[in-house]
Structure formats: structure tokens, C-alpha cells
Q: What sequence folds into this?
């Protein structure tokens, strides 16, 4: 059930943010803080979906997130839907971390 909700949010986020041109909306995020948050609240579920590798979800060929604003909105939506309790600054930290490690969108 939770996963369904997260996925719906994900699809909604993709269409809403596609038009946003703002580059790297999480430019001020702190990747070090983000790493801790992701490890604590997000990875175990991702890992269980991808054969134990929590990083595979970001690196798969058909990944959902295609640009910086989608990345932030994905983090925001999943946080909201999953009740992870991140503040907006935390979401930016998480997005900054995921971008630095996996997505490499240009600022
Ligand atoms: C209950 C399980 C679960 C939890 C907890 C969870 N996710 Fe996810 N997440 C998923 C699933 C499943 C997908 C893939 C959806 C798809 O393939 O369409 C996903 C996809 C993503 C993606 C997109 C990956 C891509 O394809 O580019 C990001 C980013 C993401 N999650 C971030 C987070 C963050 C940040 C958290 C912690 C707040 C989190 N997720 C917690 C299940 C979860």
C-alpha cells in the first residue's frame, strides 16, 4: 500500500515539475546530512526491491527521475507520503546527496 502511494506521487511529481526550469533547486543542500537521512529512512525498502542493493534503484536504466527538479520533488513526495518527517531543508540535503552520488545533474 505504501509503495503504491509513493509510486502515484512519483508519477504526479514527474508531470508537475517537468516544466520547471530552475536549475538544481537543492544547490544549497548538504550531501553529508542527506546521506545520513537516506541511510536511516529510505534504503532498506529500496534494497528489498532490488535484490539487497539500495543504490540500484537510482542507477537502473529506466529510472524515473530525469532532472534536478524531479529529483527534489520525488524526495519531497516520498517523504510526505511515507511520513519520514523530513523538513524542507532535509529534503534538499537528501536530494543533494542523491545527485552527488547517483544522478549528477548539472547545477
Ligand atoms: C516503502 C518503500 C519505500 C520507501 C520507505 C522509500 N521508497 Fe523511494 N521508492 C520506492 C519504490 C518502489 C520506488 C520505485 C518506483 C518505480 O519504480 O516507479 C522508489 C523510487 C524512488 C526514487 C526514484 C528513483 C528513480 O527511478 O530515479 C527516489 C529518488 C526515491 N525513491 C527516494 C526515496 C527517499 C528519499 C526515501 C526516504 C524518504 C524513499 N525513497 C523511501 C519505495 C520506497
A:
Amino acid at each position: 500500500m505504501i509503495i503504491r502511494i509513493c509510486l502515484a506521487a512519483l508519477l504526479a511529481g514527474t508531470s508537475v515539475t517537468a516544466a520547471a526550469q530552475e536549475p538544481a533547486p537543492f544547490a544549497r543542500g548538504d550531501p553529508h546530512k542527506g546521506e545520513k537521512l537516506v541511510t536511516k529512512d529510505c534504503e532498506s525498502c529500496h534494497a528489498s526491491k532490488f535484490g539487497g542493493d539500495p543504490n540500484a534503484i537510482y542507477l537502473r536504466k529506466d529510472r524515473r527521475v530525469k532532472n534536478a527538479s524531479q529529483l527534489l520533488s520525488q524526495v519531497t513526495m516520498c517523504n510526505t507520503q511515507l511520513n519520514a518527517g523530513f523538513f524542507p531543508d532535509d529534503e534538499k540535503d537528501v536530494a543533494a546527496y542523491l545527485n552527488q552520488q547517483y544522478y549528477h545533474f548539472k547545477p
Observations:
- Residues 2-3, 6-7, 10, 38, 41-42, 45-46, 49, 57-58, 63-65, 74-75, 78-79, 82, 84, 94, 98 surround heme C (CB under 6 Å).
- The mean pLDDT is 83.
- Residues 76 and 91 are 6 Å apart (CA to CA).
- The radius of gyration is 13 Å.
